[in-house]
Design brief:
The structure is a homodimer.
Chain A (H helix, E strand, L loop, with lengths): L5 E2 L9 E3 L26 H4 L5 H8 L4 E3 L2 H7 L7 E3 L1 H7 L4 E6 L10 H13 L4 E6 L3 H12 L3 E7 H6 L1 H9 L3 E5 L5 H9 L7 H13 L4 E3 L6 H6 L2 H12 L7 E5 L4 H17 L4 E7 L4 H4 L1 E6 L8 E6 L21 H8 L4 E5 L1 H15 L5 H20 L4 E6 L7 H8 L10 H9 L5
Parallel strand pairs in A: 5-15, 6-7, 6-9, 7-8, 10-11, 10-15, 11-14
Antiparallel strand pairs in A: 1-4, 2-3, 4-5, 12-13
Helix pairs in contact in A: 3-5, 4-16, 5-6, 6-8, 9-10, 12-13, 16-17
């Protein structure tokens, strides 16, 4: 298969189980600190989470089973686009004049154009199984909201999405996509919740924020017995559902006769695409001893791993969530408006954080202009126009390819292209016309925000 | 493979040749009338086309070889997304409560999201082979322009796209996509050509038209020795390059163990996706005697097959092109501004026209509201949001599925989903909010336009 570009996997070889990193953390020498109740500062129990999540997902959140079976109805929906293709970037390798062999996993073939439906479908399924009729969620630019809209449609659930008002008004296409799949989308802050009304009373023209939208979605779910809440990243069960990505990659590399990767690269915001891609490689390390460098790329505007501190913090701005130990820039920190909206998060998933603290993964940060330059170089060779989030992984892979050139080594590099940029072309336009602002590390804002960390 | 949804084809089984319908037309009892010079009314020769097209493409235009080898560099680019998947629409079948088995070929996985790169890549390759440095073309909504931009990037050609000004201003994302692949995009009418300057002198605020943009692109190509012109549909060689679609479908149906289709459905504008999908089924009819109904769906706003006349007419509004015998609504006819911009053409490819005249294919027309209703029903079951053009094929397949239900027959239906609707969500928004205008058959306008047909 010397000249193969696409490495496909038949449906019959699709993963039938999700891989649960928690089972292997002790074997990797990593400790995952418990999630704490914000009031008592004691570990939260299932009862604390029951108003928001169905039992099956709460069980997955704390499970230590190594493999958890993917229910057949979820697999059936996955088959609409999974297994996703793995590509060998032969043309880009030539363009970069590198001896490296570059592979990329492409999650943009999903109905919503990113990896998000992998967990949205699972979450909608378990909620439907337990008699939940409606799900609420928040969305910024719309990737997660559209994934949950699609998933709810698949299992006959109603879906209510609180969309940050500025995005609701400026990015109507993602909203239309959600509506096309039958979701109700309201601009946040709204008059439909106490949290929303409180903001509007004070700031009638508020353009909203992800923090406010979370508060609204959580409030509605907590106050209605037929409704629960869904989150698109950060939590263990969300990362768990994404592990189909990395499992497929490993099978596809075998099919392609590729060497075991020297390095794998993903972008990180909350951590879900990165985890889904990378965790199965840690399973291989445990099982077979085969190692690979694992590199996370984050935006300079929200560099939680490279510049944050590893401590207990709130997951949201409004301090409604439990306390989790994670790399954080402080829950008050609001990242600059970079186009990679999916990476604009002040914290990092606890699992990814624990791995980083243990030295099992590396991290680098980058401003957005180099990201778009790398993404464009990729698009001109490979055809696919990456989402700005995925562009961070492209940039990271490019650095590795250039390092391999420098070293004169035919290293094997694999990265996760977690989504396409069809809804992000205004960002490319800004880059092409030289009007894209770079946001460097906001040292002063982070310093101030870290002062407000909770005392544990 | 009872439960298979995706039918994949490995690269090793991708078609290595294009199928040339011209070879089989005599065996199908179909005559293809010659293309005439607009001045002499005599058949055009290669020399007449040489200023605009490279020799290889002119040779393909008139070839009667049954199979033409796809050059390896073209196959290498195809491999970035081809073979494209064939899906069994199991969930949509259930939603329609039909005993029919519905399959769809999905061309939306290409870099530009439609079938257009199949010919763009081939045309760019042959031009580069013959030392051409630049290509010009016109584009309306941008599907064809982005395909040619991508293809030129792949073979190191410059690309200049004259984009109808109203689209240039209202649909900036397709323009950005072209620029991302390195094309120069100018709003038409422009000051860069005689044709454009003439229009601007008379109408300084002209919003442009496809007819004007063609004139500008053709004028620039004809007046520069390093530049040629590329067309995205209608011509024989363009349709030829699209036949990878149908060849793949036939191999995929075999792999899936599917019955020979009772009916196949595609949408038609100029005819290229329809031809690429359907012609290989005619090859099977000639070779094996296996028949299938072949149905073309066109918009009620531009119903050339169902309401036009089969006669010699110009391909463009400005009467610059040779005369071709085709189903036409008259070259003066300007279709209403339906969202399926790719189907807004007054004529029909000569090959498709000849087949329709011979009774080998059927045709139906439909206004756009039923198209969007069908497309939404499809999107809610299958995930993929169809382009408005492809929505016509979805509507046609739905009619066949409902007819199968009525008849209580498990018919096999295959349709071509030629592109996704990621750049057409404003159309879905109009439909969802009940604001989408239906354009019925414009009887009076067509009658008037047909009066202006050239006399042969």
């Amino acid at each position: 298969m010397a000249d193969t570009i696409k490495v496909l996997l038949p449906e019959t070889e699709a993963p039938t189980h999700w891989y649960n990193l928690n089972a292997d953390l002790p074997l990797l020498g990593v400790e995952l600190p418990p999630v704490l109740h914000p009031g008592t500062k004691q570990p939260v129990g299932p009862a604390d989470l029951a108003p928001l999540f169905p039992e099956a997902l709460i069980a997955q959140e704390v499970s230590t089973e190594r493999y958890i079976e993917i229910p057949e109805p979820v697999q059936a929906i996955y088959r609409l686009w999974r297994p996703t293709p793995l590509f060998r970037a032969r043309r880009w390798e030539k363009a970069l004049d590198t001896p490296a062999r570059i592979y990329y996993k492409y999650e943009g073939v999903s109905p919503t154009g990113s990896h998000k439906p992998n967990t949205a479908v699972a979450q909608a399924y378990y909620n439907a199984q337990e008699g939940v009729r409606r799900l609420t969620t928040e969305t910024g630019a719309g990737q997660w909201g559209s994934a949950l809209s699609f998933a709810c449609q698949a299992f006959g659930l109603e879906c209510k999405v609180y969309m940050v008002r500025v995005s609701y008004e400026q990015k109507p296409y993602r909203r239309v996509l959600m509506q096309a799949w039958g979701a109700v989308v309201v601009p946040s802050p709204s008059n439909e919740t106490e949290a929303g009304r409180r903001v509007l009373a004070e700031h009638p023209n508020s353009t909203g924020s992800l923090g406010i939208a979370i508060s609204e979605a959580v409030e509605e779910a907590a106050s209605r017995s037929d409704t629960k809440y869904a989150l698109g990243s950060v939590l263990n069960h969300v990362l768990l559902h994404q592990t189909v990505i990395g499992q497929e990659v490993i099978r596809q590399l075998e099919r392609a006769g590729a060497d075991w990767p020297d390095v794998i690269v993903g972008c990180v915001g909350g951590g879900s695409n990165f985890a889904g891609f990378a965790f199965p490689f840690l399973a291989e390390r445990v099982r077979t001893g085969r190692k690979t460098r694992i590199v996370a790329i984050e935006p300079a505007a929200a560099p939680s791993l490279t510049k944050g501190v590893y401590t207990y913090d709130f997951g949201d701005t409004a301090r409604l969530t439990p306390l989790v130990k994670m790399y954080t820039l402080g829950h008050d920190f609001i990242p600059a408006p970079i186009h990679a909206g999916g990476l604009r998060y002040h914290g990092m998933s606890p699992q990814v954080s624990a791995l980083y603290a243990a030295g099992l993964i590396e991290a680098r940060s980058v401003p957005q202009n180099p990201v778009f330059a790398a993404a464009l170089s990729f698009a001109r060779s490979e055809g696919i126009v990456p989402a700005p989030e995925a562009g961070h992984a492209v940039w990271g892979a490019m650095q590795e390819a250039l390092a391999a050139r420098e070293a004169g080594e035919a290293r094997t590099i694999v990265f996760n292209l977690c989504g396409h940029g069809h809804f992000d072309l205004s960002a490319y336009e800004a880059f092409l016309s030289g009007k894209l602002e770079d946001f460097e590390y906001p040292e002063e804002a982070v310093r101030k925000s870290l002062e407000a960390l909770p005392q544990i």
